[in-house]
Amino acid sequence: MLLGVSGGIAAYKAAELTRRLRAEGVEVRVVMTRAAQAFVGPLTFQALSGNPVRLDILDPTAEAGMDHIELARWADLVLVAPASADVMARLAAGMADDLLTTLALASQAPLALAPAMNQRMWQHPATQANARLLTDRGVRLLGPAAGAQACGETGPGRMLEPGEIVAALLEPRPASPLAGRRILVTAGPTREALDPVRYLGNRSSGRMGYALAQALVTRGAQVVLVSGPTALAVPLGLERIQVESALEMRAAVMARIADQDIFVAAAAVADYRVADPAPHKIKKGQPELTLRLVRNPDILAEVAARPDPPFTVGFAAETERVEEEARAKLQAKSLDMIAANQVGGATGGFEREDNALTVIRRDGRLNQLPLMPKAHLAEALTDLIAETYATYLATQGA
Questions:
Q1: pLDDT, tens digit, for every residue of 47-70?
Q2: Is the pTM of this model over 0.85?
Q3: Is residue 48 among the annotated active site residues?
Q4: I want to staple 139 with a disulfide (CB 3.0 to 4.6 A). Which of 73, 134, 176, 204 is the partner?
Q5: Contact criterion met (CB below 8 Å) for 180 and 34
Q6: Which CATH architecture has domain 2-170?
Q7: Catalytic: which of 58, 126, 150, 151?
Q8: How far apart are CA 237 and CA 109, in angstroms?
Q9: Are 355 and 374 in contact (CB under 8 A)?
């Protein structure tokens, strides 16, 4: 494990964290930022880890053979504890201006952060936005905890205790029925061309589908993500296929669906497209413009109607009668599950960080997942998918 120690009074906890990890048989190599060295000396971590401590990317002795790249390849997990507000901001921005951030950018290993900072810094909108961006990319946040702080204030921002971090990292997750399963997820909006410049679209950001794809990867699934246009970073550990229109999304799905165990249709696919997109930009001139629209294929219904369909999970975005509309869609398309949410209101739905879901299963059981950040909501929904899929396998004799 590669342990990054950034600046802050909680750096002293990283020494105990190193000792506990070593006691569990984990090989630890430590990288310290310049600010961290003002709180704890490198020799402390060298003694506790049994390995030299890396401090500077421009160290000519260590860098004779591009050692930082080898160190990035060596790590099976990168843990930053404590993770200061500054380090979180630089990681969110993709910066590589010191050894720690360079290693985080160069490594393909999972990245976990244990935030530690003043409670006002943690609650600042900039830090919260960075935390959301990092979790959207698949970074795991451990904490922070709430309580008394060294500055005399009380609130969220304390680094988790070393024992809590070790338990969170090393406690084995129960085997998931999704482990090893091939899952195809659609996410984001589609764009239906009006002319080479304009398109018809919708307000979907893709956050829910991307978060769900990442949560499925953490359960051991082999995930293919077919995505409409979004501004989101590609989640770690999966294959993303970029498409634009509903017809392109259908083609990508149908080319791969025969090999999939589960299909999760989280994309907001346009129901209609322009019948005859203009070959050139439509010029302003006419006081009115009439568009002729034709139905797009229903990708979810087509997948569910296959002779040997995968386990199918649909989504429904509704402005009214959410449960009623979701149940009707579940039955009409013969789905195994459906997750419905209200859009167009004051909270939740499109273009927002939070959402709430009404989840209905084929047997009629209903779960209400309350309003929460989409990354957390994806974890809760993934648990329901795993539970329902296990029952599905039992009934199929698999």
A1: 999 999 998 876 655 544 446 678
A2: no
A3: no
A4: 134
A5: no
A6: 3-Layer(aba) Sandwich (3.40)
A7: 151
A8: 10
A9: yes
